[in-house]
Design goal:
By secondary structure, this protein is mostly helical. Helices cover about 50% and strands about 5% of the residues. The chain has six helices and two strands. The protein has a two-stranded antiparallel ribbon with strand order 1-2. The protein is elongated and about 70 Å long.
Amino acid sequence: MSHPYADREPYDAREAWALEAALSDGTISRRILAFLLDGMFVLLLTGFLWFGCLTFVLLTFGLGWALFGVLPFVAPAYNWFWLSAVAATPGQAIMGLTVRDKDDLGRPGVLAALVWTVGFYASLALSGIPLLLALFDPRSRTAHDMLSGLVVVRSRALTGWLGHWNITSGGPPPA
């Protein structure tokens, strides 16, 4: 696997290895904790929405029961919104992770975030087995990461402590 910026002069294989390690070091355990945090946030959000739906049903004398049909879509909408807007769910942000494009480390687009979200919930529907790919991939990527072309990396690796890898807008710095 070659580094995305291997054509940058001067290229040092040790530097590329250090950058790869900084991007993906410790992401698996952080992803698990981020999933638990996001689960709590979604549970709270769903609880508030459930109470709001129940209040509406009572105020309309039962005519608003159809609103309860949106509750199963709260969790996927939560993931898709945060990934496409901020490139990380709140749980991922708390754990110091961000979701980026695998080629240029730019923010994910709306479609890539949608593919990532659908793939994530498909992985959960398959008993989480596709999530185990992260244990064998050098970048700790799961099946939905690979399908969407995204990678989950450490935020601190993109914020300047590695020198020229201060990539906030995506893409390499100008030469």
